[in-house]
Specification:
Number of domains: 2
Number of strands: 13
Structural class: alpha/beta
Shape: elongated
Distance between the termini: 14 Å
Largest sheet: 7 strands, parallel
Strand order of the largest sheet: 3-2-1-4-5-6-7
CATH architecture of the largest domain: 3-Layer(aba) Sandwich
CATH topology of the largest domain: Rossmann fold
Strand content: 15-25%
Number of helices: 15
């Protein structure tokens, strides 16, 4: 039986939730059943070479800011003309893929939506404009995959046709994210503190939606209560060169209580070494970092943003967004638990990821969509 030809179209291949999920899907999809290629509307970013190393063809259209040109459309049409399935990731690629689908012999078009917030005040005008166009076309798409329950609800309210929308969560590689038994020792050496102090970890880029101010306000409340802790903040622009962040640390008198590590490649070690993981976001889609921390057996305290509560389940604590008092209270409650109780929550957290979000199970859900 001949392999089904699948063409993935994505805006770009830099580091991001959609790009990471596509890469993981490609690692685990059944290569004996599918002949897969990838079109990046821009360049190959950080994932292009990694995808090629998996044995897949990557075509880069090199569009500026993902804006199509006649030449890029002709080039993409050449590669999609005889494909069986076109699967797209994010708004620009959804619209571009829809146009290519009309000029191909493909039998199925699958869209992907990742965003869980379409507030005009928090999004570019061009993003909202394309989302509105896509909402009008959504009824003509075979399937629309949302990465989260929240994103599905938001897009349904925005005008997307919800009868062909399904939720497939991000998948986690449990072999890649598991507890490092020497994690706490390694983390203490990285930040230059002892192993006897509780470590609180936050992973997220510098962005208003991550609400670092809420996190630091909560930590300030803990410090004023005399609670001993050390917080470790990780992510792009989370370093001493970030003047706004440095000012916040000064305002909350937390310079001696917080380490800023910037972007890291040893996230598993950091997550394993932390006593608790905290997510302070105002808004999220499907926050991967929570699932990754849970896979490392680290219990979580998270704000009720996006699918955070769904991911955590009964293995951690959920608090309202923008409420530093509630966040501080739940962090303290988690720190006050006996170590064996936190360890028990950590084991439950990993089991939940295994049961609900294992990458093999998620890949199988995508493969169900590939039936024609």
């Amino acid at each position: 039986m001949p392999k089904k030809k699948i063409t993935h179209i994505i805006t770009g291949l830099n580091m991001g939730g959609a790009e990471t999920m596509l890469y993981k899907l490609l690692k685990y999809v059944n290569n004996e059943k599918y002949d897969v290629s990838i079109i990046s509307m821009m360049d190959e970013g950080v994932y292009g070479e990694k995808i090629r190393d998996l044995g897949f063809k990557v075509i880069c259209l090199n569009m500026k800011q993902g804006i199509p040109t006649i030449n890029s459309f002709i080039k993409a049409r050449k590669h999609t003309k005889n494909t069986d399935i076109i699967q797209t990731w994010m708004y620009h690629a959804d619209l571009f893929g829809y146009l290519l689908f009309k000029f191909s012999s493909a039998k199925k078009l699958i869209w992907g939506i990742r965003r869980s917030n379409l507030d005009p005040n928090l999004n570019k005008k061009s993003t909202i404009a394309i989302a509105k166009i896509n909402s009008k076309l959504s009824k003509k798409v075979d399937a629309i995959v949302s990465c989260s329950i929240k994103a599905k609800e938001v897009h349904s309210e925005f005008g997307y046709y919800d009868r062909n929308m399904i939720v497939i969560p991000n998948g986690f590689e449990l072999t890649e994210f598991s507890k490092d038994l020497q994690g706490k020792l390694k983390l203490s050496m990285i930040v230059g503190r002892g192993e006897d102090i509780p470590y609180i970890l936050h992973v997220g880029r510098w962005n208003n939606l991550k609400d670092h101010k809420n996190l630091l306000s909560a930590l300030y409340k803990l410090k004023n209560k005399g609670i001993k802790f050390h917080a470790v903040l990780v992510g792009p622009n989370i370093d001493e060169e970030n003047k706004d962040l440095a000012n916040l640390l000064n305002d909350f008198s937390l310079n001696n209580n917080v380490s800023l590590l910037g972007r890291r490649n040893d996230i598993t070690t950091l997550m394993s070494g932390a006593d608790i993981f905290v997510s302070s976001s105002i808004d999220e889609g499907f926050p991967n970092v929570i699932g990754e921390a849970m896979a490392c057996e680290t219990p979580c305290v998270a704000t009720d943003a996006g699918d955070s509560a769904y991911i955590v389940g009964n293995t951690g604590k959920i608090v309202p967004t923008r409420n530093s008092t509630a966040l501080a209270t739940s962090i303290l409650e988690m720190l006050d638990l006996p170590k064996f109780e936190r360890n028990k929550l950590g084991l439950l957290a990993r089991q939940r990821v295994n049961d609900q979000f294992d990458i093999h199970k998620v890949t199988s859900q995508f493969e169900e969509l590939y039936k024609i």
